[in-house]
Amino acid sequence: MPDVIPDDSVGLVTPQLQHFDQPLTLRSGRVLPQYDLMYETYGSLNADKSNAVLICHALSGDHHAAGYHSMDDKKPGWWDTAIGPGKAIDTNHFFVVALNNLGGCSGSTGPTSINPESGEVYGPDFPIMAVRDWVNSQARLADVLGIQQWAAVVGGSLGGMQVLRWSIQFPERVRHAVVIASAPKLSAQNIAFNEVARQAIAKDPDFHDGWYHKFGTIPKSGLMQARMLGHLTYLSDDAMRQKFGRELKEGKLNYSFAPEFEVESYLHYQGEKFSTRFDANTYMLMTKALDYFDPAADFDNDLVKCLSRSQCDYLVVSFTTDWRFSPARSEEIVNALMHADKNVSYACIESDNGHDAFLLPIPRYMDIFKAYMQRVADGLGVEGKV
Amino acid sequence: MTVLRDDLAIIQQWVKPDSQVLDLGCGEGSLLSYLKRHKNVRGYGLEINPEKITACIANGVNVIEQDLDKGLSNFEDNSIDTVIMTQALQAVQRPDLLLDEMLRIGDEAIVTFPNFGYWRTRFYLLLKGRMPMSETLPYNWYDTPNIHMCTFRDFEMLCREKGIRILNKTVVDDQHKEHWTIRLWPSMLGEIAVYHITRK
After folding, report:
1. Across the interface, do A368 and B42 touch by the CB < 8 Å criterion?
2. How do the residues of chain A divide into helix, strand and coil, expressed in percent and rounded to 5?
3. In this predicted model, what pLDDT tens digit does every residue of A50-97 receive, in sequence order?
């Protein structure tokens, strides 16, 4: 679709697949004997390999964070607003690495892959991943790319949780951590939303306890409901009022249960689109990783003690109308970091767009993001420049 | 290197090297940036102005977006060596409560504020019969952020009532300069007050 690739785009990109033979022991105790990671890179790695930035994706994200795969693509990667020449994560300065996490459904090993032990598709047998498992696998990808230390690890939402985990799991391998619209752990309300989404999938007769591929079915209605629920928690009341109000599709009430309001058809459209592109087992697994995340649990539930391990500087960002990952949750991280005597800056961005705001090019958000990343670039020193 | 504003130059003398500071209403972070470079001081600035927050980040200063009027309950007792507030005391909703908070969190505090007892201000009100305006106080009565103006004497009365000890004080003119004439009659001739206080 892009007739011309915009100047501030990373342009056409090609994903790469990296195979790992070394088994990965997971938090659950299970072991992945071998696995693949699908990733993309933008910009160039400098001579001393000090300018690498890792992008961690959220629930439904993947390795395609920026640019286009072909001139036929309708849309660029999911975080194209922030990654590119002259953008917040400036590819003139940085070598950006984005990958699809394990358990995903966009090319990295996950529930749709073949289990080498059984020769069959993993399906629901694919081990449930924890955020630390992703971080361990990302560290191995860094090893392959020769990246000893990331200039910055960056992510929003579930991606922000990976950033926090990186900073305490490999303190010496992270110089800057950018944690956007995230939380130190999910609240009961958040876990409840995830459980409703999982139940919608699990109760779909086409789900077959996750073995749907054997039956040649897809739990489309379950996935659609899960996505619809997710979507409405990512938007704010204001954003929905502005976007849809009470507009009617056909301009009049039909007194039927078919979608009549614009907001209904929007949700149906989003759900429908998602149910054909995303794997249900991956969705189940990703929401579980969100629920389990609680890095302070290993430190007597003391977040200050937990974050004291880190050695990096932090930027934390939240959005005023985000109620799924509210500013108060980001402020818990910020307060713990200040108590731990860490370098941290925090901004709460005015926005009507709820949790979705973290993916949008809101001017103040981009200004702060850019100013911080410029600081990261300045820290590369003369020899580190591309 | 940028030259430090004179009131900030006075403040920095009272901040111990290698200590930790909290700067309430830190602006673009010039004081924190100076203290970090010259005195190895660690610290955070609190600010609510979006442009100033971005400027702090660009200046490499730790800035936290936080509204002083919503309190400082996220900071623990005696967790900071020196809590600083320049030119913001008169603009908060309850300066008295904020002073309590500053000395709960910090061992010491440094505050600066414009003197409403400055001779020009007194004469403005006396002669014109209107709320004073000047370079230090450029606002109209209805749109001013300075909602709790006080004089040096008012401030010192408040400190006495609260049992706050004044360790040091300096007054400067609108150019933030110290001058021998100001020392003669500070409450009349000084335009900006710089107080170093503690509870101990």
Report:
1. no
2. 40, 15, 45
3. 999 999 999 999 999 999 999 999 899 999 999 999 999 999 999 999
Q: Decide if pLDDT at B177 tops 80.
A: no
Other beta carbons within 10 Å of B200 = 7
Chain B residues touching A303 at Cβ < 8 A:
none
Cα–Cα distances in angstroms (integers) from residue B7 to residues A233, B43, B195, in the given order? 49, 19, 11
| Cα–Cα distance measured from residue B25 to residue B77, given in angstroms and rounded to the nearest whole number | 20
Q: Give ∠ CA A296-A306-A340 in degrees, rounded to 5.
A: 130
| pTM given for the model | 0.93
Which of B41, B111, B52 lies closest to B80, judged by CA? B41
The answer to whether residue B93 neighbours chain A at the CB level (below 8 Å) is no
Which of A317, A341, A345, A367 would best serve as a mutation to test chain B binding (most B beta carbons within 10 A)?
A345
Comparing CB atoms, the residue among B53, B75, B76 nearest residue A347 is B53
Q: What are phi and psi of A374, to 5 degrees?
A: -65, -40
Residues of A at the B interface, defined by Cβ within 8 angstroms: 315, 331, 334-335, 338-339, 341, 343-348, 364, 367-368, 371-372, 374-375
DSSP-based three-state secondary structure for B165: strand
Contact criterion met (CB < 8 Å) for A368 and B62: no
Question: Which residue in B34, B31, B36, B22 sits closest to B68, CA to CA?
Answer: B22
DSSP readout, A156-184?
A: ETHHHHHHHHHHHHSGGGBSEEEEES--S
* Residue in A346, A374, A375 nearest the CB of B65: A346
Contacts of residue B23 in chain A, CB cutoff 8 Å? none
Token pair 């990296």 is at which residue?
A18
Token pair listed for B85: 């507030």
DSSP string across A77-140: -TTTTTEETTSSEETTT-EEEEEPPTT-SSSSSSTTSBPTTTSSB-GGGSPPP-HHHHHHHHHH
Under a CB-based contact definition with an 8 Å cutoff, are residues A67 and A11 in contact?
A: yes
- Cβ neighbours of A345 in B, within 8 Å: 53, 56-57, 61-64
Q: Report the residue of B22, B26, B44, B81 to disrupt the A interface, i.e. the one with the largest count of A CBs within 10 Å.
A: B44
The answer to whether residue A157 is catalytic is yes
Q: What is the pLDDT of residues B13-58, one digit of tens each?
A: 999 999 999 999 999 999 999 999 999 999 999 999 999 999 999 9
Residue of B nearest to A335 (CA): B74
Report how far apart the first and last C-alpha atoms of chain A are (Å, whole number).
Answer: 31
Residues 6+ apart with CB under 8 A from B144: B137
Helix (H, G, I), strand (E, B), or coil: what is residue A40? strand
Q: How far is CA A162 from the centre of its chain?
A: 9
Angle at B163 between CA B160 and CA B168, to 5 degrees: 70
Q: What is the ipTM of this complex?
A: 0.92
Single-letter residue type at A41: T
Catalytic residue of the set A57, A64, A176, A355: A355
pLDDT in tens, A186-235: 999 999 999 999 999 999 999 999 999 999 999 999 999 999 999 889 98
Q: In which residue are the tokens 């409560």 written?
A: B97
Residues of B in contact with A375 (CB under 8 A): 57-58, 60
